[in-house]
Design brief:
By secondary structure, the protein is an alpha+beta fold. The chain has two domains: about 90 residues, no CATH class; about 55 residues, Beta Barrel (OB fold (Dihydrolipoamide Acetyltransferase, E2P)). It contains five helices and seven strands, in the order αααααβββββββ. Strands 1-4-5-3-2 form a five-stranded mixed sheet, with no helix packed on it. The longest helix has 25 residues. The termini are far apart. One of its GO terms (cellular component) is plasma membrane. This is Inner membrane protein YbbJ. InterPro entries: Membrane_assoc_protease (IPR052165), NA-bd_OB-fold (IPR012340), NfeD-like_C (IPR002810).
């Protein structure tokens, strides 16, 4: 067996790369992917160029480190989309949504209709039914809202919400 491996280094590296990639598919979270790819590259290089075993081992180690570092740099630069950040937090996707109050606020609480559901909302300022609000935060199942746009009326200096 050792003689066969010594005579066919390209097949050895091909088998090792395949085993590492198969093991990676069992769930090692990327740890063996780059070693498997490096082994496949060494297999290709040893098939084209006859190089000694120590050089093959050094080449395998260098390619593994280079590919892992490049992968790490690529992941670091990659920006996650806002949808991906909130993938498992569906309620956080409501932040920034505009809605209309269904009733006047009582002690800061009211309700809005979003999609096919009614949501409890809280506002620090008193608001009237029909006021347009924007969702600014989520607290459990309560949406924190603020008035969408407020202007000061010229005659009596009262705040009115644009509808």
């Amino acid at each position: 067996m050792i003689e066969w491996i010594s005579a066919q280094p390209a097949l050895f590296w091909l088998c090792l790369g395949g085993l590492l990639l198969i093991t990676e598919m069992l769930g090692t979270a990327g740890y063996l992917l780059w070693s498997g790819m490096a082994a496949l590259c060494v297999s290709l290089i040893t098939w084209i160029l006859p190089i000694s075993w120590p050089i093959q081992g050094i080449l395998f180690a260098i390619l593994t480190v280079i590919s892992a570092v490049l992968w790490h740099l690529w992941l670091k630069r990659r920006k996650l989309s806002k949808e991906a950040e909130n993938l498992n937090q569906k309620t956080h996707q409501l932040i920034g949504i505009h809605a209309v109050l269904l009733s006047d606020t009582e002690n800061g609480f009211s309700r809005v209709k979003l999609a096919d559901g009614s949501w409890r909302v809280y506002s620090n300022t008193p608001l009237l039914a029909g006021d347009k609000v924007t969702v600014t935060a989520i607290d459990g199942i309560t949406l924190q809202v603020t008035a969408l746009k407020q202007t000061i009326s010229g005659d009596d200096n009262t705040l009115t919400n644009d509808r």
